[in-house]
What does this fold into?
Amino acid sequence: MLVRLHEDMKTISVISQKGGAGKTTLAVHLATAAQRAGLTTAVVDLDPQATARRWGDKRSAAPEVVSDHAVRLPALLDAARANGADMVFVDTAPNADQAALGAARAADPVLIPCRPSAFDLEAIEATLTLAELAKKPAAVILNAAAPRSGLTGEARAALTAKGAKVVPVVVHQRAAFVSSVIDGRTAMELEPGGKAAAEIVELWEWVHGQA
It folds into this structure.
């Protein structure tokens, strides 16, 4: 049986060496936004906690979510390419240097979620260094930011001072992100006209322009 190889498939790895940065939430939301934009999309869950896979198990629609050990990532990406995927989002585990490095090396761009807090900003150096080792372009997403907080601007300035590329779209802490994933949905499906949905659509448009 012939398979359709998709040579132009893009791989976007969502990496943070710090737990609680919101990697899985961003990965599944961006993958769903890409699917809704007409792309064939998949999520590869490399985190042993398998949060993205459990979200996918509750979901009756695309994107497909597969989980496996990090050493299987090249084979999983080959399979996605053979099945005609346009874009794959890789959700990684925190504090897994070799696995995260493999995901960074497989990526076209690396996305680094970071909460605008002192602890998260201090911890981001390791992830930025990892992207440098992989020789892949990386951008920091300020995620779970408190609406109307001055900390967001301060965090952006601090990251820029470190030489990091910061995504112009800020994703704020909103109830729709928490509520929607409980039953395998996203903020775009729970509240299509809401602020959370608008932020993800704007973020997706930026990511799509970079990939």
Observations:
- The domain at 10-210 is CATH 3.40.50.300 (Rossmann fold).
- The longest strand covers residues 10-14.
- The first helix runs from residue 23 to 36.
- Residues 1-5 have pLDDT under 50 and may be disordered.
